[in-house]
Hints:
By secondary structure, the chain is mainly α. It has four helices and no strands.
Amino acid sequence: MIDPITAFATAQAAVAGIQKAIKLGKDINGLVGEFAKFFDARDVVQKAANDNGKKGQSDTGRAMEIVMQANALREAEEQLKHQLVYGGYPELWEMMLKERMKIKQAREKAEREAKIARRKLVAQRIFYAQIIGGTIVVIIFGIIVVLVIKQVA
């Protein structure tokens, strides 16, 4: 996993590379890798922003870092959008947004299903443990009853 600082630098470098390539007249289809680098790095930075486990930094410092990076990446994404839209590829941006939404929904559905499956598995294990525990209690009770009957007789 790439660290957030490196991811932020990667995102900025990807945007710069895309902008330079577009200015040089390169085909937008040849920049898929650069776009992927930007969005991958942006996601890493966003996930790190949601991670409250960073030590050695004040709450205010952490908040400022998160806000500044998020703002810079939002502006960079907006620049990419404008370059695509005004560069003659407005449908490409819209298609990307739709596809991103489908991927996100599919991932969230898979995560929900996995969570439900984990809960079912835990409930099943608890049920089996209760059955085994109950069986053991019945066996022990039966042994005690047999021993008591033998002592009385």
